Structures are given as C-alpha cells and as structure tokens.
Amino acid sequence: MYIGIFDSGIGGMTLLHQAMVLMPHENFIFYADTDHVPYGTKTREQVTSYVDEVIRFMMGRDCKAVVIACNTATAVAAELMRSRYESLPIIGIEPAVKPAVAESMGKRVLVVATPLTVHEKRLRKLVERVDDGHLVDLLELPGLVEFAESGEFVSDNVTAYLQERLSGYTLDDYRELVLGCTHFNYFKDTFRALIPPQVHMIDGSLGTIRQLMRVLDSRQELLDPLPEAGVDWELVKNNICVRYFESGREITDAVKLDTIRQLHERLEKMRKI
After folding, report:
1. What is the set of active-site residues?
2. Fewer beta carbons within 10 Å, N or C terminal of the chain?
3. Last residue of a domain, one of 144, 172, 203
C-alpha cells in the first residue's frame, strides 16, 4: 500500500522529503497538480474540486492515507474531504502559528503564506485562538510560488522580491517567521540572509509527518518505525519507492525524474537550515 502526498506543485515535496527521511520503509505516491498550480490564487470552489479529484485518484491507487501537503488546500477543503471519505485518513498541514507564538518570547511573529491562505477563515480562527498578545502579522507572498515552480530558487529576482515584500516590517521586532506555504521552504537560504539572526524559521512539515505517523501507528499500519531523528538521507535516497504524478500522469521521463532528484537535494540542504 501507498501513502499519498499531494500539492498544487512542487511545494508538497517538502513533506514527501520529510516523510522519506522519517519513514523510509513506506511506499509513496506524490501528486503535483501542475495543471492547476497555484492553488493560492484560485477560488474556494475551484480548490475544493481539485482536492476532491486528487483524493479519488489516491483512493484508486491503494493509498492507506493521504497527506494534503498544501496549506491552502487544507484550509479550504480538508474538513469536507474527511467527512466525504470517512474511511481514509486525511492529514492536512497548516501554518505553524501555535508553536511560533509559544516560542516567540513576547516578540512578534510574521506568517507568510499565499493570498487564499491568508484570507481563509481557518487561518484567521487559528490566529485568534492562539495569539492572545496580538503578536501575529500576516503577509502574502504569491510570487514565491511562481519562482519555485519555475525552478528559480536563488537569484537577484528572488532576493529583490522578498526585500520589497518585507520592507514594511521592522524585522528586529520579530522572533518567529512562519513559512505558511510548502513552496516557501525552497527559499530558506534567502530568507536566512534577509532576516535578523534571532528570527527563527518554522514550518508545519515535520509536525504534519509526525501526525501521519501517529495516525498510521494507531491503525497498526506504520511500517518499521524509526527513532525520532529518522535516517541519513544519503543512505536511503536511492532505495525508497516513490511514484511521481503530474495531475494524474505518471512521470517516467528521465529528465523530469532527474529534476525531481535535484529538488530533493535542495530540500535536504534547506532541511538543515
């Protein structure tokens, strides 16, 4: 059986990569909905329709659980999908606002995400629930998704874009930067170069995969659980079974598979920042 992980594009590979490190004995299907990327600028109705189509695809390919590796899709459609497909564990990701506020030591927290995530009620309610001190600010960064999907991770254009978007914030006032879109993890090195050293970056990928492991363990479906730290990527990267799909079309082209390999190598570097 497989674990299905999907996103609108390559951002969800952040969670796939984390899962491969922590769960190397599992089999995975990764689905990038490239026909509809980005989700963050679509309507609620469009995103719900896309997510439903992917869930049905995963169910037809013997998936024992599905991870919605997209903050936007989780915010818009996760609850509905769980009620619609009750027999299938569906694990969503959300911006790591709660741990960020808890670790902020009374300083401000900046949450960066897609426009739809920022304006979705789910995130607003999360902030209201945990942000008693009114420390959280929300910032839309739709351009980063476009940079990521075009494979532009480190460039003068990326730096200039982030400098412009962050220019309205006194970053010395902040303690936590929440990466509220899985695409943003590809840019950790640029973020790190632009934000003060005391600002800690946090995202929801590790917590989401740990929740996946807890759910599978409770169903006695977790294969060969590992220690908390997982395994060395270099030792396992060539031995894990993953099938990659683009909007339902399986990727078998050697050039595309090599691009995926390069994305994993970048994610491994970003995982250590």
Report:
1. 70, 181
2. C
3. 203
